[in-house]
Design a protein that fits this description.
Oligomer: single chain
Strand content: under 5%
Shape: rod-shaped
């Protein structure tokens, strides 16, 4: 009651095929697949770029901390003299 049966779905699918034709439906399916593939690629590239930026920032912070500690050691040796 109120649900869509398999026969109703088949009739709707047949009408869609008759209206658009198989070539056009195949082309639309290919376009949709390409769009999804491009979206997934963009998302993974964005994530990789974020990870790369984070690693680069962490490395710069580490370099800054090393330089800061080296400067502090030089100042300590100067003040000891």
């Amino acid at each position: 009651m109120g649900g869509i049966s398999i026969w109703q779905l088949l009739i709707v699918a047949l009408i869609i095929v008759l209206l658009f034709g198989t070539k056009k439906l195949r082309g639309m399916g290919g376009d949709l697949g390409s769009a999804i593939k491009g979206f997934k690629k963009a998302v993974t590239e964005d994530e990789e770029k974020k990870e790369e930026t984070t690693k680069k920032l962490n490395k710069e912070d580490a370099d800054f901390n090393e330089a800061d500690s080296a400067t502090a050691k030089k100042e300590e040796t100067k003040s000891d003299k």
